[in-house]
């Protein structure tokens, strides 16, 4: 294992030289942020400069707290001149995971733990069996022999905790070993501070709305939050409803940034959220994920062709039909709906 990690590190570093200006691109969440920190550490004194850019709006409190407490500087990807960088790295994502990644014609390196999609890069390390990209990056750091600061260890540790949901989701022995390595080095009070910063006060209204409007069918909770300030609100609500005893699935949707986002969560018992997301919505936008968690994003311009006059009621009806395999595509006024159990 150590030899393989060293070989991967050597191949990654061989992609760069001392004059390179490197741009690390992420769809910012704890795993992506921490993994980008690790890559920046690996490239320290090996390239001319390293910047980290995010394609998404960062509004989740834990992400904001993580960035603040770790002293990170992340730049909006849309504000950057891509041509100013000689090498680009994509971490915890793949080129077809977000439309903004299309600004990069070809990434120099792609490192991720999601299922492999079709793309080309100089260096590719995709390990879908891993619970977190942060675990992979910890192995790179171990192979490098570089010192891992308490802040970097805290970021990577929190990322592993988040993506494996404290090892309740998919994880392998390598994730556990990475966690053990980081636990000895991390600033644990800093980790606890980040963990306790999940919900902003203004998000509480979405929880109230969800409690008033949720629909349940055969252990599945369906919620449409209408317009949300950030798609991550759907994630928070989906995770919250998974704590209900009789719930085995949560499907939460919301409208944000000219797209419908649908978040999937399940209990991980003989279920595959990624496959369901792809089957239900893959034909209309981007969709995929892991066995217990997934996401689909559908442009509003596409949604208007699928749902006649897409009101909130018709959107959740369409989502329910697609998830239960009863929708053929376009939903028209007057179409008979499925039987459902309202809240």
Automatic annotation (TrEMBL):
<feature type="domain" description="DDH">
    <location>
        <begin position="22"/>
        <end position="158"/>
    </location>
</feature>
<dbReference type="InterPro" id="IPR038763">
    <property type="entry name" value="DHH_sf"/>
</dbReference>
<protein>
    <submittedName>
        <fullName>Phosphoesterase</fullName>
    </submittedName>
</protein>
<dbReference type="InterPro" id="IPR051319">
    <property type="entry name" value="Oligoribo/pAp-PDE_c-di-AMP_PDE"/>
</dbReference>
<dbReference type="InterPro" id="IPR001667">
    <property type="entry name" value="DDH_dom"/>
</dbReference>
<dbReference type="Pfam" id="PF01368">
    <property type="entry name" value="DHH"/>
</dbReference>
């Amino acid at each position: 294992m150590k030899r393989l990690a060293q070989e991967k590190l050597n191949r990654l570093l061989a992609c760069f030289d001392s004059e390179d200006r490197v741009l690390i691109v992420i769809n910012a969440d704890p795993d992506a942020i921490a993994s980008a920190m690790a890559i920046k550490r690996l490239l320290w004194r090996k390239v001319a400069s390293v910047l980290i850019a995010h394609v998404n709006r960062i509004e989740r409190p834990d992400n904001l707290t993580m960035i603040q407490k770790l002293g990170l500087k992340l730049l909006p990807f849309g504000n950057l001149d891509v041509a100013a960088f000689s090498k680009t790295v994509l971490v915890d994502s793949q080129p077809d995971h977000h439309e903004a990644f299309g600004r990069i014609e070809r990434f120099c390196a792609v490192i991720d733990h999601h299922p492999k999609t079709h793309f080309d890069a100089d260096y590719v390390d995709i390990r879908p069996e891993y619970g977190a990209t942060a675990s992979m990056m910890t192995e790179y750091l171990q192979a490098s022999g570089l010192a891992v600061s308490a802040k970097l260890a805290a970021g990577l540790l929190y990322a592993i905790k988040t993506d494996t949901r404290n090892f309740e989701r998919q994880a392998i022995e390598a994730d556990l070993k990475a966690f053990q390595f980081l636990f000895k080095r991390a600033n644990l009070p800093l980790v606890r501070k980040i963990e306790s910063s999940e919900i902003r006060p203004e998000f509480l209204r979405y929880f109230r709305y969800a409690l008033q409007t949720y629909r349940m069918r055969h252990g599945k909770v369906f919620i449409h939050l209408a317009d949300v300030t950030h798609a991550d609100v759907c994630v928070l609500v989906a995770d919250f409803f998974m704590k209900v005893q009789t719930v085995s699935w949560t499907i939460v949707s919301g409208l944000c940034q000219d797209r419908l986002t649908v978040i999937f969560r399940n209990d991980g018992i003989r279920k595959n959220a990624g496959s369901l997301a792809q089957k239900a919505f893959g034909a209309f936008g981007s969709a995929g994920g892991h066995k217990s968690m997934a996401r689909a994003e559908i442009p509003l311009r596409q949604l208007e062709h699928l749902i006649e006059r897409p009101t909130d009621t018709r959107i959740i009806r369409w989502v329910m039909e697609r998830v239960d395999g009863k929708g053929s595509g376009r939903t028209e006024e007057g179409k008979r709906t499925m039987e459902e159990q309202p809240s």
